[in-house]
Specification:
The protein has 131 residues and is α+β, with helices and mostly antiparallel strands. The chain has one domain: Nuclear Transport Factor 2, Chain: A. It is 30% helix and 37% strand. The chain has a four-stranded antiparallel beta sheet with strand order 1-2-3-4. It is globular, with a radius of gyration of 14 Å. It starts with 17 loop residues before the first helix and ends with a strand.
């Protein structure tokens, strides 16, 4: 049996975010992409984080900075608060979430309203408003 998924869905990783991160499945909604990105942060899957960022924003990402950030945080729990659109028939969507993180041994609550867009049929993270 697979380990629990870091996105705290209570579904095993190999049946939840694992196939998305491995590239064998594509998230069909903005929420599924958001959950898989949380798992990617937890597991240090930097390539997935870059690949699932909107093309217009991708150039601003620094791979090493992202890898360092992933190494320095512990993703404890994820709670989806609200969502608008972001389904299989939509082109945009938002997901509001609370992410419990541990940074340098201190617990933090990251609250974000994330915006997602569909590019070439795939959901991508565009940007977000935090805390």
């Amino acid at each position: 049996m697979s380990r629990p998924c870091p996105c705290t869905s209570k579904v095993p990783y190999d049946r939840c975010c694992g196939p998305f991160i491995a590239g064998t499945k594509v998230p069909e909604s903005a929420e599924l992409l958001m959950r898989s990105r949380f798992s990617a942060y937890a597991l240090g899957k930097v390539d997935y984080l870059i690949e699932t960022t909107a093309e217009a924003e991708r150039g601003a990402l620094d791979r090493e900075d992202l890898a360092t950030y992933c190494r320095n945080i512990r993703c404890v729990a994820l709670k989806i608060i609200a969502r608008t659109a972001g389904g299989p028939g939509d082109e945009t969507g938002t997901v509001k979430f609370h992410a419990s993180l541990q940074v340098n041994g201190k617990r933090q609550l990251h609250v974000e309203l994330s915006r997602f867009v569909r590019e070439e049929g795939r959901w991508r993270y565009l940007d977000g408003d935090t805390n």
